[in-house]
Amino acid sequence: MINAADLGTAQWRKSSYSNSDGGECVEIAEGIPNVTPVRDSKDPEGPALLFPTAAWSAFVAGVKAGDFPLHP
Questions:
Q1: Domain DUF397 spans what residues (predicted)?
Q2: Sequence ranges of the domains in the chain
């Protein structure tokens, strides 16, 4: 089970897909077994979403493949 201490010591990095003007900033933490925590970099003390590592990897692969269009 993941607890607050696990995330408190996590090394967060901003997604390369985040923009540089301070908006739409997503950070992920790596190195926590079996999950990929994701948070809003503008609210680092706020909640983090925990995704199974395989699901997060599939999502990132889909983004890179263009499976999620920006505009419908």
A1: 10-64
A2: 4-63
CB–CB of 56/65 below 8 Å?
A: no
Which residue type sits at 14? K
Distance CA 67, CA 20 (A): 23
Query: In Å, how far are 7, 36, 37, 61 from 31, measured between CA atoms?
Result: 10, 8, 10, 19
Q: How far apart are CA 18 and CA 49, in angstroms?
A: 17
d(CA 29, CA 65): 22
pLDDT digits (tens, 9 = 90+) for 20-30: 666 668 899 98
Residues 6+ away with beta carbon under 8 Å from 30: 11, 13, 36
Beta strands in 6-64 (DSSP E): 11-14, 26-30, 35-40, 48-52
